[in-house]
Design brief:
15% of the residues lie in helices and 35% in strands. The protein is an alpha+beta fold. It has one domain.
């Protein structure tokens, strides 16, 4: 089972940066910036290029991408702490918190994602507070309907779901739990469970978003 550990922050951490609106980047942080490689690096580089060109700024021909200093955790206004895959995948299995799956609002629609890491970006001389995420698929519509809008059955999109988002678009930490509703052995599915600091909820609040897609 993949589940989040709820962690309420009641004291100041040794390494933290307030990014406003009740959000804070928390330790660990990389000491030096470096260019991210692979699929993640391609997505980050494109984000910077799109943002800079949108402001009328030129991109150098041989530019290989920005140097990024990764942050490991994000404290939300609710007090929850969202971790990231970057650090959790370096941790021994018995110590992993599995708190790097989140609910977020993108373009006025609820989405769910795995957080790869958090970082700052200086774009058009302004600092942006960002997260690299890997989106989770939209739910299986048949199962969602048959379960009266209670079971949000999804698959992970991997590199195809990579996206840079505003860190403040993250709303809460969620659990991502394996289930075997589908009989295909290669069909690895999960369902999303919200139970963070409130009564158990199974995402009925997202029903409208799914129905509007049909």
């Amino acid at each position: 089972m993949i589940y989040p550990q709820l962690e309420r922050e009641t004291k100041s951490l040794q390494v933290a940066e307030d990014i406003g609106d009740g959000y804070k980047f928390l330790q660990a942080q990389e000491e030096y910036g470096h260019v991210i490689t692979g699929a993640a690096g391609i997505i980050i580089k494109k984000y910077f290029e799109d943002q800079e060109t949108a402001h009328g700024n030129d991109i150098p021909m041989n530019w290989i991408g920005p140097k990024v200093r990764r942050w490991a955790r994000l404290q939300l206004p609710t007090g929850e702490i969202a971790c990231c895959a970057w650090k959790e995948k370096q941790t021994a299995p018995q110590d992993v918190r599995r708190a790097h799956y989140v609910k977020l609002s993108l373009e006025n629609r609820i989405e769910f994602a795995e957080v790869e890491f958090y970082f700052h970006a200086k774009i058009n001389e302004e600092t942006q507070h960002l997260a690299l995420i890997s989106l989770i698929s939209r739910p299986d519509e048949d199962l969602f309907s048959e379960s009266f809008h209670t079971v949000w059955s999804v698959t992970e999109l991997g590199d195809d779901g990579l996206q840079v988002v505003n860190a403040k678009s993250i709303l809460s930490v969620v659990a991502v739990i394996p289930h075997n509703h589908h009989v295909e052995e290669t069909d690895k599915r999960f369902f999303i469970w919200e139970n963070i600091g409130s009564d158990v909820g199974l995402l009925s609040d997202a029903a409208g978003a799914v129905d509007s897609d049909e």
